[in-house]
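Holo prediction — S-adenosylmethionine.
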Amino acid sequence: MGQTRLFLTAPRADAEAIFKLLDARFDDQGLPISIFETDEERGLFEVSLYAEDDVETVATQVRETLAALGTAPALTLEPVPEIDWVSHSLAGLTPVRVGRFLVHGSHDRQLRRPGDIAIEIEAGLAFGTGHHGTTAGCLQAIARVLQSEAPRLALDLGAGSAVLAIAIARAARIPVLATDIDPVAVDVAKQNVRLNEVESLIDAHTATGFHHRVFSEWRPFDLIVANILARPLMGLAPGMARHLAPGGSLILSGILERQRRSVIAAYNGQGFRHIRTDAREGWVTIHMKR
Ligand SMILES: C[S@@+](CC[C@H](N)C(=O)[O-])C[C@H]1O[C@@H](n2cnc3c(N)ncnc32)[C@H](O)[C@@H]1O
């Protein structure tokens, strides 16, 4: 079932008060909530709540919660478009080299060089062959973070083929939780994990955002990588703050250059500071820390 976004627009102070109320009200249900600026000139902010089941009940609960404020802006409901990740997946199988990482198909094994961290991925149903600017941007950011940090536990949220989880597991030899909303992607991820012989390090599960008990069993993570899209990433900001250890690194991608400011603002609001942004093919990869 798809997600629905329930949102309202208000000036900054009202939006912040609404965000706080909703965050406290829906904390138990773990529904993602985000706040970000939509109109800089007029100082308008949008507060969004993402629900999957019982959307009408959630909408009623939101309206009841907002009644405490006296007057509240109108609530709008809109379905979150289903992204056809399969058509985003690239069929070409030219190997991709990013730093020490070499992502390749089975017929390109001979290209491995000593010292390479080789990741074998067949371009299958799940997004993530290393060719896309967002995946390559994440690989580059992972390589840089691992030069100066020694994470003990990592999360790849929206793992697709699990290329990033495999990169982390192979480079850092640490346990990695790989999750994806799409069960087909999770099956492909599991196959790739076996193919790359990192079954002892990677655990893959189907989960939407942080909705799975496995997260509370694993958290806090020292490194989280999420290559999804700007809007869901903004919705996931409070969950990221709850699951990343203080001092931990967060790598976000799937963000267009023009969306960069809004994403950073949503994460600043959750106690993250911006470390660095890298651009590739019109997409940006953002490194933040808590
Ligand atoms: C752009 S692909 C990234 C795949 C891989 N991590 C990479 O970097 O190549 C995004 C993946 O996120 C998954 N996804 C989208 N929204 C999600 C959500 N709310 N929770 C978990 N996974 C999600 C999609 O199914 C898709 O496999």
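READOUT: The chain has two domains: 4-79, 133-289.
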